[in-house]
Design goal:
The structure is a homodimer.
Chain A: H1 14-18, E1 37-41, H2 42-55, E2 62-66, H3 73-81, E3 86-89, H4 92-100, E4 105-111, H5 115-125, E5 130-135, H6 138-151, E6 155-160, H7 174-185, E7 189-195, H8 207-230, E8 237-240, H9 246-250, E9 257-258, E10 288-299, E11 302-305, E12 320-321, E13 327-330, E14 337-341, E15 353-357, H10 361-365, E16 370-375, E17 383-389
Helix pairs in contact in A: 4-5, 5-6
Chain lengths: ~400, ~400
């Protein structure tokens, strides 16, 4: 038994404190990891990082990998070691964790509203090399400018344009120009360019349909960049793209920064996308799993596992048993999932541990405190090589 | 700005450390609470606790309130102050947090499989007055017995029977008797009764249909209790029931312990249930909210708020704007929700803070680190009276 599991502060030495409440210890065999646990296949993860770096090595774009996926400065630093310029994230509290973890360059790829949040963001500008945010309203602009002035810093700002997602952002074209001018005019803000992310296009299954949608995104973005340029406003950053479309924005000649995040882990939802040749989107490998134990075996064709809503999100479909034909995960409740077994050669038995591929990696990661990093996950002797905290888990504000 | 928000360990005194990463400070006005935040309406919460205590005061049942809902020993102690006999929970790591927080009597209302988990549970038996678990298999029995023997303790055990939920549990009747006998025969296990929870019945909307389902649950449970009794096995605990059906089990004459949890908070999903008279299930009030800020206002009929999948679960339907007619929460993404506005008299404006009723309280609570406890939430001067940690958040194993 892990001493960390005894959970009593009096029994802990420093190492145990650091790993408090982790479901594993470094050096442990995978079979001894407690469940449910969030597991990284380090080999696949490292291949995914390298594949993204290679894929854009010859393109006129930088990678600003999205930390909303992993919430870990440890992972951002690995992405930067392979060429990423920094991180983006969605919340000021995520930016705080990234900067504290040593990330020098952080864009909050989101609007920040509220003097308290903006004061915290402005404070970060003194601690990091580059801190930016997105703006899509006069109020957002005024509040950011005031916070930056109060802190005697300059905040970098992108104008977010709505390029099809129908969420935040001003319309492309003149509304973006108007806002960009006002940003450029303020001494405590630096206009840096555009945020042009089309989130809902990422998961369009058919490659042609996905490309048609992103072609419109690229056209609207190009038009806006050119309009700003004619008016003396250069866009150093034109940011957007996700794992589902990054090659399109990379080839656009307009986008300068890619904000893909999920490529490092590759969830079950992204695996449903298709490539241009109609084949499955297999550029990246599944590198994130929820390790779970069969805790009840009430019927021959039914197994209950110890992973439910609280350990694997279902907003983009069910988690899927990895490499187990005939076994499906269904009917999750808060702490349980039911596996139905149809014609499996090797049905999971009581006490067996198995791997689930999360339906959606970002909200699944956000449920866990620790990444259990395993070397040789699918080999004969998988071992826990490291434990990384999900450092910005719960950093919502 | 909250000093805690500066987030730098060097700046923290002890109080700030305790409240690190909390979106509020004690004494703060609600309007100054950062968002998204998990808010308890203390007045409604206390009324809900009292209503449950009153509702079962004259019934031959005890309340063993479910801590899976709130994950907080602070809340369990309040439930016990009003008569609850203790807590139930779903995970050993939750039981550890409850015992460490002073709860003397904890049932893991779930199967526990795995020597590591069971060793931890057995260790708790030395620290608390009463520790129990559920068993539905020979393997579960053997592992629990071995862990208890190793720790030189006696673990209390219930046999779980499947009373309609189709999840864990042996069938009612003879299979339960067989398992109960084996438990009773083992010197390190104490047979205490039956776990007979029908989870999926809780949310059947129509009262008559719900009752018909629970009538079957009660009949199967009674038959099993009587069979065990004939065979010399007394059931001190016959546990089950949730917020949707507790009155039925309370009146059954068979159940001795109710495991309701959600009644303290009352989510949007439970509010869709109907009472016997066809009216809405309003025995309990909404006492849990996600406080969120309008962070973008891209169109007259659309507002984007800063609460998405990572702050409010959607497995049982969308969170709902509280007391705002014509305003609907839709299209959540990880960090955003889109409000559509149709004919509202007072549409939410940029920067406004508003309350969402969670679709499902348990997995929503599990996303947050802190309860922001507000007195007079719907009055003129709502104030943060306390901050309670969601102490067992992330206690999955």
């Amino acid at each position: 038994m892990s001493r960390a599991h005894k959970g009593l502060p009096g029994n802990m030495d420093k190492t145990e404190k650091i790993h408090a409440n982790a479901p594993a210890e470094i050096g442990m065999a995978l079979k001894d990891v407690d469940t449910p646990a969030l597991v990284i296949d380090l080999d696949a993860f490292e291949r995914n990082l390298a594949r993204m770096a290679d894929a854009i090595a010859d393109k006129p774009v930088r990678l600003r990998a999205h930390a909303k996926t992993h919430k870990s400065p440890t992972i951002t630093m690995r992405q930067m070691a392979l060429g990423a310029v920094g991180a983006c994230c969605q919340k000021v509290s995520e930016a705080e964790v990234l900067v504290r973890g040593g990330v020098p360059d952080v864009l909050v790829s989101n609007e920040v509203i509220g003097p308290g949040k903006l004061a915290r963001l402005a404070a970060l500008a003194d601690q990091a090399e580059w801190i930016g945010l997105c703006i899509d309203s006069e109020l957002g602009l005024e509040q950011a400018a005031e916070a930056a002035a109060d802190a005697e810093v300059v905040l970098n700002a992108l104008v977010e344009i709505d390029v099809g997602a129908g969420r935040c952002g001003v319309p492309p074209g003149r509304p973006a120009l108007q806002l960009a001018r006002k940003i450029a005019d303020h001494p405590n803000l630096r206009f840096c360019g555009l945020q042009a992310y089309h989130g809902s296009a990422q998961h369009i299954r058919d490659h042609g349909e996905r490309k048609a949608e992103i072609d419109k995104t690229i056209a609207a973005t190009r038009e806006t960049v050119e309009l700003l340029q004619k008016n003396g406003l250069a866009c150093d950053i034109v940011g957007g793209a996700g794992t589902g479309t990054f090659e399109m924005e990379a080839d656009s000649g307009v986008f300068t920064e890619l904000q893909a995040g999920s490529y490092i882990f590759m969830d079950a939802d992204y695996a449903r996308n298709r490539k241009a040749d109609g084949g499955p989107f297999d550029t990246f490998e599944h590198a994130l799993f929820v390790l779970t134990t069969v805790m009840s075996r009430p019927e021959p064709d039914k197994a209950v596992v110890d992973a439910g809503h609280k350990t694997a999100s279902v907003d983009s479909g069910m988690p899927q048993p990895f490499s187990m034909s005939g076994v499906n995960y269904q009917k999750p409740s808060d702490e349980h999932g039911v596996l139905t077994i149809e014609g499996s050669n090797k049905p999971p038995e009581l006490g067996d541990k198995l791997l689930l591929v999360p339906g959606h990696c970002d909200p699944t990661v956000n449920l866990h405190d620790w990444y259990v990093c395993v070397r040789g996950l699918h080999g004969e002797n998988p071992k826990v090589e490291d434990l990384w905290p999900v450092a910005a888990r719960g950093s919502h504000f």
